[in-house]
Amino acid sequence: MDEIGRIRARIDAIDQDILQLLKTRYENAKILGQLKRRRGLATRDRQRERDILAKIQRASEKLDLNPRYSLQIFHKIFNLSLEAQREKRKPSFHKLRNKEILIIGGTGAMGQFFSRFITANGGTVTIVGRDQRRTLKTAEDLAVKPGRLLDAASSDIVIVAVPMKSTRQVCIRAANRMRSGALLIDLCSVKSGIADIIAVQTPSRIEYVSLHPLFAPDIDHLDGQNIAAVSYRTGPQWDRLSRTLTGSGARIIKMTCDYHDRTMALVQVAHHYALLSLGNSLKGWSGDLKTNSIKRTIATVRSLLGNWDTIIGIQQLNPYARQTRREFAKMTKSMVELRGPQVNRMRRDLASLVQKWSRKP
Ligand SMILES: NC(=O)c1ccc[n+]([C@@H]2O[C@H](COP(=O)([O-])OP(=O)(O)OC[C@H]3O[C@@H](n4cnc5c(N)ncnc54)[C@H](OP(=O)(O)O)[C@@H]3O)[C@@H](O)[C@H]2O)c1
Fold it and tell me: How do residues 90-147 score in pLDDT, each as one tens digit?
């Protein structure tokens, strides 16, 4: 590819990034619109628009971009946001309409994400946490109902989004109250010893699917996201929920409990372990002379710290974790002396691995 072709390819990639950011902004504006409607607030806030434009003007000048054009672009972006905020979907788009959904652990990160997703799809959400004040405050912020575990009895779907160590017990308690044909979902990052036990210790009259969202809860929409699913008992409620998830762009990947944990022992256990080891091995570094690559690593380690209980829970509860860490340590030890033939073999192996990994979404 010549230089012009290379730069054009880069510009094409930047255009796609801009579109992705616009989609993210649009989805946030849609949720904002729903919250404003429920609180009786006006869609348009001209003072906020003026504040944003002032910031854009200053930032453009700093970046040596002509503010005349960036301000015009932002006026168009405001139009897109207004359209998103005003979007009143036809009832047929409300895929979860008439569905009562209880989210246990609804005050936590994943619980709040699912609360927003379900509300956006027309479902009626009730959230529960152990801390009553936090439950009331979160319910008010999300414009959903605060509730109790007892509400499992009147729910069509119960989503359990509590820490891994409590998932089994909370699922079994909720399931015993659920009515025939209702759906129980957990979001646990480890399945063996949790989902397989829940499946046998919960009544066969209810549907049960164990999901693992393969993303952090700080995303804005499900488009392009993967969700692992171990389905134990499926029926109409799961059909409706899974269609809602895939209709929003998520990819549901069905698998067994054991396949999930074996794969996650590499995708999560080895990956997080490598990052935690790397972070600790950099203790002697002051933080200067940063490369882009290390900036990305710092951001990833920061996000692991923000999710500490889940990260450590995976290391402790995945039945293949210890073996994976052992093999990882053995492999890094074997790399201490980097000699000619070993280096060449490693490069070849890695190149074919990268090719293999890149084939799947
Ligand atoms: N975070 C992630 O990136 C991620 C990704 C994929 C899957 N997951 C899975 O999602 C689940 C939740 O993770 P999270 O990150 O959202 O955790 P989190 O932010 O710590 O939230 C957990 C919530 O559960 C509530 N809770 C704790 N014990 C409870 C109990 N016994 N009964 C009722 N509520 C209880 C907590 O509120 P109170 O303390 O007030 O009760 C809290 O709101 C875990 O199974 C995790 O494996 C997380």
Answer: 555 568 988 999 999 999 999 999 999 999 898 999 999 999 999 999 999 999 999 9
CA 215 to chain centre: 3
CATH code for the part of the protein at 91-255: 3.40.50.720
In a mutational test of the pocket of ligand 1, which residue from 126, 130, 219, 261 has the highest number of ligand atoms less than 8 Å from its CB? 130
User: What confidence tens digit (pLDDT) does each residue in 274-316 have?
Assistant: 999 999 999 999 999 999 999 999 999 999 999 999 999 999 9
Q: Where are the domains of the chain?
A: 3-86, 91-255, 263-359
Residue 77, classed as helix, strand or coil, is: helix
Annotate 118-134 with DSSP letters as a single string.
HHHTT-EEEEE-S-HHH
175 Cα–ligand 1 center, Å = 18
Question: Residue 16: what residue type?
Answer: Q
Q: Which of 310, 311, 317, 318 to mutate to test the pocket of ligand 1 (most atoms within 8 A of CB)?
A: 310
Ligand 1 pocket test: which of 104, 110, 165 has the largest number of ligand atoms within 8 Å of its C-beta? 110
Residue 28 Cα, ligand 1 centroid: separation in angstroms? 23
Find, among 262, 201, 264, 198, the residue nearest to 231 by Cα. Answer: 198
Helix spans in 184-255 (H): 195-201, 236-247
State the distance from the centre of ligand 1 to the C-alpha of 247, rounded, in angstroms.
Answer: 25
pLDDT digits (tens, 9 = 90+) for 44-53: 889 999 999 9
User: Cα dist. 107→45, 165, 213, 359 in Å?
Assistant: 29, 17, 17, 37
Distance, CA 163 to ligand 1 centroid (Å)?
4
Between 1.10.4080.10, 3.40.50.720, 3.30.420.40, 1.20.59.10, what CATH number should domain 3-86 receive?
Answer: 1.20.59.10
pLDDT at 42: 87
